Amino acid sequence: MKAFTKRAASISLVGLVVFAMMCVGAVAAPATRLKVGATPVPHAEILEAVKPILAAKGITLEIIEFTDYVTPNLALNDGDIDANFFQHVPYLESFAKDRRLNITYLAKVHIEPMGAYSRRVRSIKDLPNKAKVGIPNDPTNAGRALLLLQKAGLIGVDKKAGITATIFDIVSNPKNLQIIELDAAQLPRSLEDMDLAIINSNFAMEAKLVPTKDALFMEDSDSPYANVLAIRNVDKGNPALRELAQALISKEVAEFIARKYQGSVVPAPSLNL
Fold first, then answer.
1. CA–CA gap between residue 221 and residue 263 (Å, rounded)
2. In terms of pLDDT, which residue wins out, 1 or 55?
3. Domain limits of the chain?
4. Is-above-0.70 flag for pTM?
5. Which residues, including other chains, have CB under 8 Å from residue 45's CB and lie 6 or more apart?
6. With bands split at pLDDT 50, 70 and 90, how would you rate the model's confidence at 15?
7. Does the domain spanning 115-218 belong to CATH 3.40.47.40?
């Protein structure tokens, strides 16, 4: 009888120890955390809207803000962040090729139509001869800006150049516009010195400009420059990053973008079909 009691007590003790270890393991298991780099507007704001969706799945989202178009990709490639959200596909592909980075994208989230802004004229008809026109100085956005100027009838661009057009591909310039290339983030501040500036919507909104109201003209909503969630090539199968991608193209986030930005930023979940 005593032997049975001791044996039962031993089994109970072992059971308690195993149960305790399971409880400790459950408490100590680290939560999944993602560090995502983003420019402040609209990307960081959109990521803030995604936080509750990910939290419900046990994923903590940490947003690291950047104010340029170079550092986020270098930080991603070096492993300092898990993903970034600030750029469109042509820029990502061009930057990755030039810098030999092992990065790609997981989802197309939205489109930010590029616009033309001025503090000196209210219509492109009022642009003087030899007007100063600022455009981004990175290759993909420069080409994009030149094509927008062409669409507005201000210049002509060599058809062979396509989205990689440079100022050397301008084949007609009736107003003899002076095209001045500047860092994209500097363009809103250049408006005091320029007759016209072609500005990415994120930098326009950071400068308190409202693209749908303040732009003299802008890209159509069918622009091919979709902004994407960028990741390292080796992380394509990462479950947490896939959850983030799905959240960014969800109906809830699309409704948030449409409601908050009123056409200045256009959700693009259909581009992932």
1. 8
2. 55
3. 32-112+224-272, 115-218
4. yes
5. 260
6. very low
7. no
